[in-house]
Amino acid sequence: MTQRRHDHDGGFDLLPDLDERPGPARRISSRQAADMVRLAMEAAKAEPVTPPRRSRWKLALALVATLAMAGSAAAAISWHLRERTALPKPSPAWGIEPPTPQAPAVPQPPPPIAPPLPAEVATGVEVPVPKRSAHVSRQPKEEVPEDLLAQANRLRAARRWQEADTVYRQVIAKFPGTTSAHVARVASASLHLEHLDDPRGALRLYEGALRGTPSGALTEEARYGIAESHRALGSPGEELKALRAFIEHHPDSPLRGRAMARLREVERLP
Amino acid sequence: MSTAELSPDQARALAAAKGDRRAAEALLAQLLPRVRNLVRYLVRGDWDVDDIAQEALIAIFRGLPTYRAEGTFKSWADRVVVRVTLASIRAARTRPSRPGPEPVELTMVPDPSAPADEYLTRREMALMLDEIPFDQRHALVLHHVVGMSVPEIAEQLSTPLETVRSRLRLGMASLRAMHEKTKATKREP
User: Global pTM?
Assistant: First the structure.
């Protein structure tokens, strides 16, 4: 039985009891909470019984679901929208551009293409997603983008950032124009910004993601990522424009408050 | 202990340990806010809370077969969260450090499920904890939030008893001083 109070405590009442009520952790949506629980259970079963590694759980959503990824991607990478610490300094730009979409050299079945998702996805409204076509499922050695994203996520969970990014680029190159490529592009951008010390590369990827998918899934993440990249690059003018664009396009975003606060800070800069 | 004597949490935990997926999911969903809150009490800033909370959920789920319904389930889960969080903090110390978090904007609409200012008060308390040294912070949280005794804390932190008591005293003094200062600032016109 634990003894909560010692005679030297003097009844310390500043710290509230621990419970399930909101605070001090930031609030999250019920969908994010449900996703966290689901991922924990799946990760607990999938991982070998060794000391667990830090995992960026939210991006794990991009690999756990199959075509449901199209619906969950917005929730998956919505983790991305969280308050950041100071960002890394600009470094030599990422020198390798993902190839522009082109016809695959080897004839293969067209990958399933999910329709652009409405903005409601970001608020947790379920969106029907196309079923995986029978033809995609299954030649023995056929590579599907979900498997590559799963592989990238395992690498990411193991903090092998560069290798994870290489796999994301494979998804972009091999499955151009697909939702998977879009998810991979945004995921790669976040890696470049947060772990590869390459905000210039991140910016290029975020802008590419937004050009390819100007509305719908992950555009909130892409626009916010653009603002963050400009911040890391030390470009307050561009950051200001990007923040204004984010606020204008995503007035209901949970990060609107943070974006407004940062906007005011940047506006005050000399 | 017979099944009839078990609390709902304990019964659900034991069912989950036997492979009842629905019980496990319901248990983790119920625990998640508490887990996140405890992690936030222990770490500085919001940056890593959800990653660590995710690891803690995994550890709780995988540790369910070891839960023996001795003591409340929440106490057992709290201790798992503490172990995972402190391990994570130790591991983070070996990596290049990141600068501290940005100031949090607390001008938010109150959560409808909480009293009008409780959420903001709790957030403010976390910010105050962010200002005191980790060793004092952890002693305070483990004792006054988790309810661990001084000997338990000494064992958890591999620290002598008197050191824990000293950290508690210093931590309480620091927190009280900050709280008074915050109150005084708010009273100023």
Answer: 0.52
